[in-house]
Design a protein that fits this description.
With 87 residues, this protein is an alpha+beta fold. The protein has helices spanning 34-41, 49-60, 64-80; strands at 5-7, 12-16, 19-23, 30-32, 84-86. It has one domain (7-82): Orthogonal Bundle (Arc Repressor Mutant, subunit A). A three-stranded antiparallel β-sheet has the order 2-3-4. The chain has a two-stranded antiparallel sheet with strand order 1-5.
């Protein structure tokens, strides 16, 4: 069975003006880029990486191969800082 990405339930995303920030405790903030946020929004623990890519292909009209590479890189980076977990 393929693991699926899920936004860490302890993570909170805060929007301030035109910027996005992520925090676990309200004390320490990380700037979150909009592409990473859009990908993270789709991480519900139910969709596979492939399904997330397909949704983004439909929404953006971008070619699948380069988009898939970006999605995998973003998910890897989000995973390293525990913004997403794999279920």
């Amino acid at each position: 069975m393929q693991k699926k990405p899920k936004k860490n339930p302890k993570l909170k995303v805060i929007q301030h003006k035109d910027s996005l920030y992520a925090t676990f405790d309200g004390q320490r903030l990380w700037s979150l880029d909009k592409v990473a946020y859009k990908i993270m929004e789709l991480c519900d623990g139910k969709k596979t990486v492939g399904e997330i890519v397909e949704i983004l292909v439909r929404k953006t009209g971008l070619p699948k191969e380069p988009l898939e590479k970006v999605v995998k890189e973003v998910l890897e980076n989000l995973s390293k800082v525990n913004f997403i977990i794999w279920v």
